[in-house]
Amino acid sequence: MAAISRAIRACAAAGSRRSMASSAKEVAAAGARAAAAVARRGREREEDGRRVQWVFLGCPGVGKGTYASRLSQMLRVPHIATGDLVRDALASPGPFSEQLAEIVNNGKLVSDEIIINLLSKRLEEGAEKGELGFILDGFPRTIRQAEILEGVTDIDLVINLKLREEALLAKCLGRRMCSQCGGNFNVASIDMEGENGGPRMYMPPLLPPPQCESKLITRPDDTEEVVKERLRVYHDLCEPVEDFYRARGKLLEFNLPGGIPESWPKLLQALNLDPGNERSAAA
Ligand SMILES: Nc1ncnc2c1ncn2[C@@H]1O[C@H](COP(=O)(O)OP(=O)(O)O)[C@@H](O)[C@H]1O
């Protein structure tokens, strides 16, 4: 991991660029192939001591953090969310955090250089603690970030979570965090007619326990105006990253069918993961 973080910094400095091919066809088949290959490689890696190196993509509010964090516990790898690294940097007062706040609170992306520095530092700290593998959440978000990552390490699988846009906005606006325990909750109750005759989508709220109720805070970038800007930025800058990995046969598209109880077992199935592993991880 230390080698990866050093290489990420070096590549970023060199400003590496490579061309990108995209193919919109056979998405489902490619996703299934990617998942099968991952299951096979996963078994080989466990034997040689290397754990998964996965990436989560998806619009703001889709639930990347929720599913990435559950999978990281199950697969015994760190869940590294670049949004969390940015929020940690924002929490230390000074000119750097003021500059970051201006960008983040307007729904823009921070520069590739800044994010790569934050990520490299996090990977170095992990290497010192002996961490193996990772699930990245919120990185890469630009083609340049994807190229830099590709230049320094192998990504096994990229999971692209998808949800209808109305649900994304409602989920971002309903997001709450407990300022004391750091727990994440969502007060939105989503119940939408199915699209094109499809099934109804129901996502119940994830309410806080009574001791957290009076300590809930909302992210300053979760206002309607800023969420709409973040969605626009996602479509412009981050969607090409989906094409980047699709062209490499690494993208697994997953349409969330509803809330966590409904979606989690289906995600495990799509990933060829045995729910029994979750129980043994929890134990
Ligand atoms: N890989 C990245 N590149 C640039 N900016 C990033 C990256 N990851 C996080 N950020 C910044 O941190 C903010 C919060 O990120 P995150 O918590 O992942 O938000 P979201 O809920 O929009 O997925 C982003 O809006 C962006 O300003």
From TrEMBL:
Give, as one word, the top-level EC class: transferase
Q: Check the record and name the CDD domains matching this protein.
A: ADK
- State one molecular function term (GO): ATP binding
Pfam families xrefs: ADK
Q: Which PROSITE patterns match?
A: ADENYLATE_KINASE (PS00113)
Explain the purpose of this protein: Catalyzes the reversible transfer of the terminal phosphate group between ATP and AMP. Plays an important role in cellular energy homeostasis and in adenine nucleotide metabolism.
Q: What is this protein called?
A: adenylate kinase
Lineage runs: Eukaryota, Viridiplantae, Streptophyta, Embryophyta, Tracheophyta
